[in-house]
Amino acid sequence: MELLSGADMIARFLKDEGVERIYGYPGGAALHIYDALFRQDSVQHILVRHEQAATHAADGYARASGQPGVVLVTSGPGATNAVTGIATAYMDSIPMVVLCGQVASHLIGEDAFQETDIVGVTRPVVKHSFSIRHPSEIPEVLKKAFYLAATGRPGPVVVDIPKDMTAPTERYEYVYPKKVKIRSYNPVNRGHSGQIKKAVDMMLKARRPVFYTGGGIVTGRASEALTDLVQRLGFPITTTLMGIGGYPQGDRQSLGWLGMHGSYEANMAMHHADLIVAIGARFDDRVTNNTSKFCPTAKIVHVDIDPSSISKTVRADVPIVGAAGSVINEMISLVQDREPANSEALGEWWKSIDGWRAEREGKLYEPSKPGEALKPQEVIEAVYRATRGEAFVTTDVGQHQMFAAQYYKFAKPNRFITSGGLGTMGFGFPAAMGIKLSYPQDDVVCFTGEGSFQMMMQELSTCKQFDVGVKIVNLNNQSLGMVRQWQDLNYKSRHAHSYMESLPDFAKLIEAYGFTAIKVTTHEELAPALERAFVDTNELVFLDIYVDPFEHVYPMQVPLGSMRDMLLSKTERT
Amino acid sequence: MRHIISILLENEPGALSRVVGLFSQRNFNIETLNVAPTEDPSLSRLTVTTVGDDRVIEQITKHLNKLIDVVKLVDLTEGNHIERELMLVKVKSLGAARDEVKRTADIFRAQIVDVTPSVYTVQITGDAGKLDAFVQAMAPIGILEVARTGVSGIARGDKLLTL
């Protein structure tokens, strides 16, 4: 029998759970835990410069690896600073465990120094939360936290730990719980066989089918199975922003992603489809546009692990509650020796799709000519080539995020890392940091903008301390581009606070931390800058690339319209 | 349509706030709410009445089921059920009104449980409709205060909400 203090139990549990790295920031209520971490060497602690960055770094790691990211913060401001990152993970169903120090239990409720009811504050943005009430329950509660975070529809779990629970003088028996049971929590895996059969029958009879898949394919590790199913059937497939990489984007059957800034052909195909097979996607408002005009001729099969996602915004004709991988595999076994019944209709369907593709071919944007300002789109394409499409790509939020999603073509899941649901500016850089620490051999590129980068740029210091070699590509348009785009379209170009005057000289700023920065202002400077940037995968390089500040992201769905109502450029509209 | 949803909830600190928070967070509506421990000390039973179309009620039950602290739930209005609520009403009772209050209470099978020279306190149980009717009947006489427990309910016959 081993007797450990609460703090030592936490450190020991993390080791036994296989956690190699956690992200955090110390403070009074967490000091016993920090002392326990100091006295061990199994778990590496990455000291960030702001708790929000700790959550984003853990989140980036979780999205890249599929394993829960782990965060440790102190009570009060430490915990409240983490809230944005917790909400970001919640909206995108990312597994994360956040350990929060808390004031000693006898002080709770007395407005003690650095006291916040963090369980209350985070309640709407967590999958679940716990408060430790006795040190002896720490191993079991932590096991439950990891189990909940990573299973079913994943999400963040907060564990609130009053300081007296970790006191070094109080020791209790420690046993690593290999398994826990929660009587009210039994996530489904297999879908209902009858429903799956019904769905497959509809798929085989469909004339204009489309797969519409989301983040559930990525978190559910179902992309191989999905690719198999889609290729057997020969149907077109579009993914959500979160589902990018779930199906190889270079493949002919891939229509790219759909929705507000999705591809013309994806949105057109959705609108004209007679069957939509949605898997691990949630019909969110950035996808559907106006739900009353959404896909008027389509029957809908909806597969999701979370029953509450089904028929939430759009009624499903065939709801299937189950894990993406399991349901897809069952579908594969049912289509094994069968062919789609309407091969002629499918041929016509592909003709329409190829027609839509051809309509926009070469018209997506106008590349810059020598001497002109670079277009953001061509920068993304150049980075795609420079990294052979194999980098981990994180983004912040705004125009650059949409351009990155449109012009970097992902062949694999877990490679496009973006805050899709919450849309958190400041996410990209710390997320890239979290990934790079766990994938030192890979290029990790963060596409950002001056607005987003300045929200989390203090993490340069963390990168310095831990030698984190991410590549930061700042698409500098001297404005909050997406805000300005909306102001151009909806507010007669009244640019209320979407400008960025008084930008720092980013090169000097980066150099102050001892890193390399390259400023690119012309067409001609881009290629050599990229060549220089990717010489050493472990060197942090910041590319400050000045791009055309007047560029808009297109296509763009027209508000309140259907899927096919899009602006295609500043002058064209469907 | 009005629905009565009964929930078996882990008897844990914060569990109630998760249920209540869910309703406000997702813009669902709570008409009444009633919660108390059950014969199993690890469980509370919470009954909520809410109004919504089928789609909204489906979302409410699905989201409630997603809460880790919710062990089991039933929408009682889907089947035959018994609905009860208890109300205590203070009524101004002076002169002729004293008889009138007593008579009306008798008609509703309510009991007068506290008496002062000027006030009767009446206790009444029944479904929400009966309690509403009693309030209406007493209103002209002069209601001073109303305390209602919110609806509690149970399915008729063999159907059980247990683990």
How would you characterize the overall build of this protein?
- The complex is a heterodimer of chains A (574) and B (163).
- Chain A is built from 22 helices and 22 strands.
- Chain A is an alpha/beta fold and 574 residues long.
- Chain A is 37% helix and 17% strand.
- Chain A has a six-stranded parallel beta sheet with strand order 3-2-4-5-7-6, sandwiched between helices.
- With 163 residues, chain B is of the alpha+beta class.
- Chain B folds into two domains: 78 residues, 2-Layer Sandwich (Alpha-Beta Plaits), CATH 3.30.70; 71 residues, ACT-like. Chain A, domain 2 (Alpha-Beta Plaits, 2-Layer Sandwich).
- Chain B has four helices and nine strands, in the order βαββαββαββαββ.
- In chain B, strands 5, 6, 7, 8 and 9 form a five-stranded antiparallel beta sheet that branches. A four-stranded antiparallel beta sheet of chain B has the order 2-3-1-4, with helices on one face.
- In chain B, a hairpin with a 3-residue loop joins β6 and β7.
- Chain B starts with a strand and ends in an 8-residue tail after the last strand.
- Classes of the chains: A alpha/beta (574), B alpha+beta (163).
- At the A-B interface, β6 of A face α1, α2 and β4 of B.
- Chain A: Its cofactor is Mg(2+); thiamine diphosphate.
- Chain A: It catalyses: 2 pyruvate + H(+) = (2S)-2-acetolactate + CO2.
- Chain A: Pathway: Amino-acid biosynthesis; L-isoleucine biosynthesis; L-isoleucine from 2-oxobutanoate: step 1/4; Amino-acid biosynthesis; L-valine biosynthesis; L-valine from pyruvate: step 1/4.
- Chain A: This is Acetolactate synthase.
